[in-house]
Write a structure and sequence with these properties.
The complex is a heterodimer of chains A (242) and B (222). By secondary structure, chain A is of the alpha/beta class. Chain A contains 8 helices and 11 strands. In chain A, strand 1 and strand 2 form a beta hairpin. In chain A, helix 2 packs across helix 3, helix 2 runs parallel beside helix 4 and helix 3 packs across helix 4. The longest helix of chain A has 16 residues. Helix content of chain B is 82%, strand content 0%. In chain B, helix 2 crosses helix 6, helix 7 runs antiparallel to helix 8 and helix 8 runs antiparallel to helix 11. Chain B is globular. Chain B starts with a helix and ends with a helix. Classes of the chains: A alpha/beta (242), B mainly alpha (222).
Amino acid sequence: MDKGLTVRLHQQAEIPLDVAFSVAPGEAMALVGPSGSGKTTTLRAIAGLYHAAEGRIACNGATWFDSAAGIHLPARQRRAGLVFQSYALFPHLTALANVMEALNDTPRETRREAATALLARVHLDGLEDRRPAQLSGGEQQRVAVARALARRPDVLLLDEPFSAVDRVTRRKLRRELAELRRDLPMPMVLVTHDLDDVTRLADRLCVMHKGRILQSGSVSDVMTRPASAEIAELLDLAADDA
Amino acid sequence: MDWEAFWLTIRLGGLTVLLLIPAAILTGRWLAATRMRGRAIVEAGLALPLVLPPTVVGFYLMIAFGSGAWFGQMFERLFGQTLVFTFEGLLLASLIVNIPFAVQPIQRAFEAVGPELREAAASCGLSRWRTLWRIELPLAWPGILTGTVLTFAHTLGEFGVVLMVGGSIPGETRTIAIAIYDRVQAFDEAAAGQMAAVLLLVSLATIAASYMLTQRIGRRYG
């Protein structure tokens, strides 16, 4: 597949991984599984923050990682917008400056305008000059999303994006992200424990356990027809976690 | 009051800070992020001047700087002068004994920045230098300030190493700490007391200024 994201990773040691999946442009794939199932490691490998032993990662025709060919593009050279679980906002910079940092390949004179527009897109107008410590958890999450989008990424990666906020904020943010997602042309990979995140945000679902994909398919297929008792149990656990 | 010794001490402290802090920033940043196997050995080597008696450090430096050692000989061949009992030798000794005072607070400050912000910077497409300049240095600034102040204050008060490497040559190696000692030896307690008070005030002012700046930075990033 030239367009979209293709991922194939394999390794035995350290963190066992054996995953292969593709995500089309505009499609959202959720990686679900218990802690230690390898979902965050997979996401980090896509972003270039983890170097898997073997495999290949390509996005929109560009090879980001190919162990056979000795290619491993560093994170800064991959157009991957990553929303960290703890947001990882730069604490000494304002919301606007956080987004502007990710716009460093945009002409200097239009950076401020572009960052302001991105913050408005995530409903943060008027809060541009606040530092992360002066923002609520939900507002910080929005800044993290705006910053991830600022790179005009070829893929959007979200690592447990709602885990640090309360239930009410989580519902609100989820609704906003679902709306935002409709206009985003790139593939999206979402790591979550929460099946509500999956049903509201994802088109497809990969159930992972111990570094392997146990089942993947459309969200409704996997949820209604789990391929084994183990998968049903894992999905039940995810539902309980939520 | 031996103003010549006072200004020589200030010049020594200033030059030590100017030359050591940039190197300490690079070393501290490297140590904070490296997963190299021999990291503990490197750290132990850099911390040695902290645990060794100053006279021991001074003794080894005096031997190394002397014309009987390869280092002293090499320096003499390159610059046509000896290192022992010169300001240059004193400066080099000051740089060496201050390494832990400069590197350790800076390293801890870079460690406190954490790997996640570095990863976020990489994900934002920032180059290594831009990450250092825009993200890490501003966040590690209180640690850099602490390293600077400790280095400067420690240079003002250093006695054992200065005595071993520099002796007490007026205008060349006699620092204020040595001048105080000389005055006490000469039973001139009034002059010794005056210089001790000046040293105390300068040290207090330097440390107070650093605390105030650190607090201000803390409030800004709250």
